[in-house]
Amino acid sequence: MQLNVRDVAGIFNISEKTVFRWIKHRNLPVYHVGEEYRFSRSELLEWASATRTDVTSEIINARDEDPLLMPRMDEALQAGGVNYGIRGTDKNSVLHSVVQALHLPEETDRSFLYQVLLTRESLGSTGIGNGIAIPHVRNPIVLQIPSSMISLCYLEQAVDFGALDGQPVSILFTLISPTVRTHLNLLSKLSFALSDPRFKTIIQQQSSPTEIYAEARRIEEKLPAH
To answer: Is residue 136 annotated as part of the catalytic site, yes or no?
Structure first.
């Protein structure tokens, strides 16, 4: 939680005065540390997704970033894979199907992971609007895996996720990472990507994995070098 008002202004491409206005009128998540304001990047990302507020590439290189090389979004998507026709008639059954579809090591406790996802949803819907959800945003899923992954799942039928816009969800991104910092980095990149009209269109059209990976690669190349 090292971000200050100037950092947040850069992340959203707004003035510092607007940051204070958003705190007061748009419930921008903030902490008071002495006489200063401090912000959590994961909470800002969740707030931006819930309120459909675009972020800039500045959020990728925010000051609380790990100095080591972070995973590429296109490589994480290829590791997680694209899954079509995921079955389920409600949130719980869909999440169960998603967990079963994830490309995880055999020794992974999938029942535990399923319970983690359910617990996260009980804190508030991860539906970000426009039929998209990102299960488990606030508390990163950290498992013993060799590299980070983003799994993209298309549901056989849309289900109610309690999203703020009231639309049922048919597209789910699930992030699995070996460390908290790599999770936050990928979440930042995914939030940035979903504010890109071309990437969002490709996702909503349920394009082929090849097209989706290519778009993720394009987004990755747009980001500033670490």
So the answer is: yes
Give exposure, 153-185, as e/b (b: 16+ Cβ within 10 Å).
bebeeebebebeeeeebbbbbbbbbbeebbbbb
pTM of the model: 0.73
Which residue is catalytic, options 25, 32, 96, 136?
A: 136
Does domain 73-222 correspond to CATH entry 3.90.226.10?
Answer: no
Tell me how far apart the 2 most distant CA atoms of the chain are, in Å.
51
Helical spans, DSSP H, in the chain: 5-12, 16-25, 41-51, 73-80, 91-101, 110-123, 180-193, 197-204, 209-222
Dump pLDDT digits (tens) for 119-159. Answer: 878 877 888 889 999 886 455 666 767 788 999 999 999 99
Length in residues, the chain:
226
Q: Which of 152, 160, 155, 156 is nearest to 127 (CA)?
A: 160
Contact 160, 181 (CB under 8 A): no
Among the residue ranges 67-71, 145-149, 175-179, the one predicted with the least confidence is 67-71
Domain boundaries, the chain: 5-59, 73-222
Q: Does an H or E element contain 127, and which?
A: strand 127-129
